[in-house]
Specification:
By secondary structure, the protein is of the alpha/beta class. The chain has one domain: Alpha-Beta Complex (Amidase signature (AS) enzymes), CATH 3.90.1300. 36% of the residues lie in helices and 13% in strands. It contains 14 helices and 11 strands. Strands 1-3-2-4-6-5-10-11-9-7-8 form an 11-stranded mixed β-sheet, with helices on both faces. Helix 9 packs across helix 11 (357-377). The structure holds glutamine. Glutamine binds next to strand 4.
Amino acid sequence: MKKLKGLTIKEASKLLEAKEISAKELVADYISRAKKLNKNLNSFLTFAENEAIDQAERIDKLRRDNQKLSPLAGIPFAAKDIFSTKGIKTTAGSKVLESYIPVYDATVVGKLFEAGACIVGKTNQDAWAHGSSGENSDFRPTKNPYDTSRVPGGSSSGSAVATAADQVIFATGTDTGGSIRLPAAFCNVVGLKPTYGRVSRYGIIAMASSLDSIGHFTKTVFDNALVLNTTAGLDEMDATTSPLKIDNYTDEIRKSPSGLKVGLPKEYFEGLNKEIKQNITKALNVLERQGVIIENVSLPHTKYGVATYYIIQPSEVSSNLARYDGIRFGYDRDNFGAEAKRRIILGTYTLSSGYYDAYYLKAMKIRRLIRQDFIKAFKKVDVIITPTSASLPFKFEEKTDDPLTMYLSDIYTTNINLAGIPSLNVPCGFIDNLPTGMQIIGPDFSEKLLYRVGHSYEQESRWFERRPNL
Ligand code: GLN
């Protein structure tokens, strides 16, 4: 039998199409590996074996009938446990929802099912997506497959790990302040935070509604574009989705980036760890050889980003988490963990009369300035490249005593959510066997361009081939 391990969507879909393997074989193989590795990695909270096998059998039948199928048909995937899945437990990583079974699918999940993707299970995460390390999961922390004494990044920890450890071929995540890009960087996988409103939020348990972006983890940039082809677009159930026509994200991905201008914001490199800086410089050298032009840019309001984010985000959290009142869903409010409580209290304070103007309103004004910095920079350059994280994957409990230190993990990612623009994490090499990532940031709805730059770099650097030793 064909070797089924380590496949990309592109490779698996080719084998399926040529009928060299069946979807059922592929999915069964992934489920058994996912379960086995889960004992060590804790990347899954729930398995959906029956659903996955049923779907695989359905796809095999359609293929026998020579139906034209999506490249995602028969591909095993995982959904972060914040995506509503009809009939499959959905906890958002919180004890409050420990027993909650949704009665409908999130739009993205529905679209993936329609394309024929097979759900292996639901992945572990920081409760309510609050966190940068996975340690805020109310169940158990997920481990980094490159070094299990270290965190995988958060909050979409399980989805990044499941992709990196080859428990699935792709996974969904949410990014409110970095929760796709940071774990993607820590786990050597590709992760996209799309433009706000490009992918529907319907059926995703809300964290901070004006920042929440729905995206995906894959091994390669090409695979990521394939998934976005299926999930992007207007949704009548989410009024913030854009009516703008969706691009075909794969059709220009092989076009050379030659002539494109890449901006380097000096604020993202000041005081940066030398070795991480070195990896980014090497990556930029590759892109320069491929013909891109590097220019310096400035994003002067960068330094206000984390503070602004940690006012706006808890304000919205305090409102969104008000619906868990012990009447409608799951268990009562005593089940909220420390971090959720901290954010509810913070947000209630920043929205309260007397403090609203001083905190929330001011933060909203700075948010506008942060977005304007980017808009101004994109008049000069096509994309901006920065490190995704200022640090390497850290040890468990290294940052849990001090929430502020943990919040600073997002120093390079939150501003992109405040600005609403897209950003793609692409693996850019290792330091002491630990992965690092760079993010390619672009103007609104420039996902296609980000994929083109990312793909070109990845084809030469090929970091995706260095899989964890498990
Ligand atoms: N780590 C950030 C936070 O704790 C971002 C989380 C996210 O993107 N969901 O808020």
